[in-house]
Design brief:
By secondary structure, this protein is an alpha/beta fold. The chain is about 35% helix and about 20% strand. It has a 6-stranded parallel β-sheet, with helices on both faces. A 6-stranded mixed β-sheet has the order 19-20-24-21-22-23, with helices on both faces. The longest helix is centred in the middle third of the chain and has 17 residues. The chain is globular and about 70 Å long. Bound molecules: adenosine-5'-triphosphate (ATP) and magnesium ion. The site of adenosine-5'-triphosphate has 23 residues, from helix 4, helix 10 and helix 12.
């Protein structure tokens, strides 16, 4: 989709420093290595790199328009130069402009846990759906992976095409004000807060801080828009109460709910989805009851958009876990739940519960790494989680990292887990060595920790040798 120079100037309120040779340009790019002939290069200043240093390279690669907040040191030939006050804001402005121009239904998803999963499930449902008689297949834009911040969201919306009917976008935060800003960019017609749980406490301070931050999404829904409210989450319920527009509730007492949940262990789950008075059997490829909650949330959103139960059933049946999110692997007859993508107390407990519920012979072993970004509550949260984990009566706990090996271990002991079931590792290789000696066919391992702990390395090391 092309941009005219006038559109860019209008959307960004920028100043034309140099006219260049062209008036029409191609896609917006922030990574100079991705520039193609005709691209618009936006010079972002990141934590490590400053895009302003790559302006000349971008133009050499074919950029015909560059957007900067500092005058380029060297003269830029062959390209239009537009100066703005802040290039990050300009990127957002362009994304917002495109969102308004093509006017798809925008569904925004935030929450402490389950954003990406809910987003993938909803997108899969929409691909199966018909709206006003027309199929949505190929007409659904979704956030790729985890592109949920002030760079990722605009880049997602900038991929919008005229024929996209719905955009499903993920909004993430680790400090106050971010969701508000992201919501203003996305201007959602429909929004969901999947959960409010202790995560990113470093930036958001307390649970009330987390709730206030997530609540900004409901506050920034379009006037004629709607919200989905998880009645089983007390914080979300409270946030939903303040919303004056249309609401769709889900959870035990909600308009949309799950009945007769049946775990299929690592293979997933079966349940009856109830929407108002209608019912429909669902087969889910995601293990764990927490993923049934995500599925019900996705179904509530789809229902609000006018999607049939048949499409919801088909879409949920098709959706599959993404890499390192409850991903099932196997190594020499040992089952592995690779959930190493990220972690906070609620998501670790959900995963441990899933592990403990797997039926059959063999041991159930959790291999856990530190949870980051918990700020001053870090020690206490690790301790508390250790105590809670003890109740699931796992065969063993293998720990890596300063907080888990100290605090979580202490908590597990206090919760009644015998000391001989708790092991600590010096590093990934050490833990892999210990596990290799222990595990047998039929056992199940869960790997989880914050992204910085890279707990998936243990799987790689296990699979790499022997
Ligand atoms: N509803 C839920 N409640 C608790 N834990 C959950 C829930 N949904 C997912 N999880 C856990 O969180 C992990 C990450 O899920 P997902 O990627 O969907 O979350 P996210 O909110 O997108 O995370 P991030 O903030 O890292 O983008 C899952 O693998 C699972 O362990
Ligand atoms: Mg995510």
């Amino acid at each position: 989709m092309s941009w005219t120079k006038n559109e860019i100037l209008f959307a960004t309120a920028g100043k034309l420093l140099r006219a260049g040779r062209k008036d029409v340009f191609g896609e917006v790019v922030t990574d100079s290595s991705k520039v193609r002939t005709g691209s618009i290069f936006v010079a972002l200043k990141g934590e490590r790199l400053d895009g302003h240093r790559f302006v000349a390279e971008a133009v050499r690669r074919g950029a015909r328009c560059v957007i900067v907040h500092r005058r380029p040191a060297r003269a830029v030939k062959n390209a239009a130069v537009i100066k703005v006050s802040d290039t990050l804001k300009a990127l957002a402005d362009l994304a917002h402009y495109r969102r308004q121009k093509f006017a798809p239904k925008v569904v925004a998803i935030t929450g402490s846990n389950g954003k990406t999963t809910t987003k993938e499930m909803l997108a899969a449902i929409l691909e199966e759906a018909f709206l006003n008689g027309a199929s949505l297949r190929g007409k659904v834009l979704k956030t790729e992976g985890n592109f949920n911040n002030l760079v990722g969201l605009p880049l997602t919306l900038l991929r919008l095409r005229r024929d996209h009917r719905v955009a499903v976008v993920e909004l993430g935060t680790n400090h106050p004000g971010e969701i508000q800003r992201l919501a203003q960019i996305a201007d959602p017609d429909l929004a969901i807060i999947t959960s409010v749980a202790p995560a990113h406490l470093e930036g958001l301070t307390s649970m009330a801080g987390v709730a206030r931050e997530k609540g900004a999404l409901y506050r920034n829904v379009r006037a004629d828009g709607a919200i989905a409210v998880n009645l089983d989450d007390p914080w979300v319920r409270r946030l939903g109460r303040r919303f004056k527009g249309e609401k769709i509730t889900y959870g035990k007492r909600g308009n949309v709910s799950a009945e007769s949940w049946q775990s299929l262990g690592p293979k997933g789950a079966r349940f009856i989805l109830r929407v108002g008075r209608a019912r429909c059997a669902i087969r889910l490829n995601y293990p764990g009851q927490h993923n049934v909650v995500n599925a019900v949330g996705a179904a509530a959103l789809a229902h609000n958009l006018g999607v049939s139960l048949t499409a919801i059933r088909r879409g949920l049946g098709r959706a599959r876990p993404m890499a390192m999110r409850m991903q099932i692997e196997e190594w020499q007859g040992v089952g592995i739940i690779n959930d190493a993508y990220n972690a906070n107390p609620a998501s670790i407990e959900a995963a441990v519960k899933t592990l403990a519920e797997i039926k059959g012979q063999g041991e159930r072993i959790a291999v856990l790494g530190d949870m980051f970004e918990l700020g001053r509550q870090s020690r206490q949260q690790h301790l508390k989680l250790g105590k809670r984990i003890a109740q699931y009566r796992l065969s063993a706990l293998y720990l890596l990292g300063a907080e888990t090996t100290e605090q979580m271990r202490k908590g597990a002991l206090r919760g009644g887990m015998p000391a001989e079931k708790i092991f600590v590792g010096k590093d990934h290789s050490d833990l892999a060595r210990q596990l290799r000696r222990r595990v047998r066919r039929g056992d199940w391992l869960l790997l989880k920790g914050s992204r910085g702990m890279a707990m998936e390395k243990i799987v790689q090391k296990l699979k790499g040798r022997r």
